[in-house]
Amino acid sequence: MPWQRTRRQTFATDAGRLWSVVGDPRRWAQWCGAIEEAHVDGDVRAGATGAYAPAGPFSALHRRTAPPLRLVEVTPPATAAPGRLTLEQPLPGGAMRVEWVVEAGSDGMSCALSQRISLTGPASPLVARLVAGPLSDGWPDDLARLASLVVTPRPDGLEVVVAGGSGSLGRALAADLAARGHGVVLLTRRADAGVPHRQVEWDGVQDGAWEQVLSDPARTAVVNLAGRLVDARPTAANVDALRESRVLPTRALVRASGRLPVPVARWVQGSTTAIWSDAGETRVTETTPLPTGPAALPQMTGVARPWEAESEGAAAAHRVVLRTSIVLQPGSPALRRLETLTRLGLGGRVGSGRQWFSWVHVDDWLAVVRAALGLTPDVVLPDGPLIASSPSPVRNVDLMRSLRRRLGRPPAPPTPERAVAVGSVVLRTDPALGLTGRHCTSSVLAAAGFRFEHPDLDEALDDLLH
User: pTM to 2 decimals?
Assistant: First the structure.
């Protein structure tokens, strides 16, 4: 089965300006972190040859051994037709093809970019790991670099402060907002020179100079995603650490907002649908009561409830509490683990297989956050809890069947609960992550007229893992 990955993004610039960078392979390394250098022999035209060197330890080997790449198509955007640049790198028994399409928006002031990477031939698995995979997974940071080259900040744009912006979701959100002309600041414990956004260091606990990022509160939004990954053994110490990594940064942000002359414009408070722990057959919406007593698992409800509660004192004109389900995103820990297990022949149902799996495609998650930030005029959301989840949850047995189909794997034996418990010790993870579930959908999004681009799991997996 051919390997293929497709990514898309809207930019707040005209098609010609974006094409001036994307349509010139010689500028590839300026915006793509996975590329060290690229050149074309002569003019940029169909049929021309050239070469590129991937960033990383295999750059020198590639320079010495790879045959020339060829420009298959070079078509600038026109009034009624998109621009298209396609290059092809020969591989043993196949090829890697990269295609960019730039399509003008109907308003003449925006455009859309798509990137498709495809591999054929027996060398595909190796090339996917060394070159094509990094090209695809680096898309969010590449978008931010592109935005810095072609996007003029919107005069009416928000300045969005993202706490926890170094994670996969934070970087995807930062890139999406930057491409659309909004300002982005990442609050981070340690600045990373490879991150193409403005970064301000803080410790997530103390007051300090970082509070200057809130200096213009009337046009500032806060998106609070701060917190350690939940993929850890559910020991008392780990649960305490998970809770504190969320509560303490939220407390610091709320404290800083209270000293502002006016409230910040928007506050999107991160949370999780795991706040309902194991909801069984309950059809969960925003108004479903939270569990109490033994039903409130410490590593789920016990972490998310105080995280949300800490944000209640935020000085914000609007505050949305975003209860996010599992986000399916290329290169994310969740999707990578599911894909790896399925490829290893462990793609059977987990436990009974009847536990519900609520999920959302990353593109839809980004659209939900934009709506929560007030950036989608035709979708007006109320303050309060908001579930970010596809309208089509599936049971675990159906999830694993869809993954096997998408990845071309045969039926696999089930993984009994006892095996999950033993395996979680070896992998240092929480067995409840695989054995519990929730059927979560949003009545708030439905009432607001929000439309999901990827409401169906099979279609979403086709888009992400083709």
Answer: 0.95
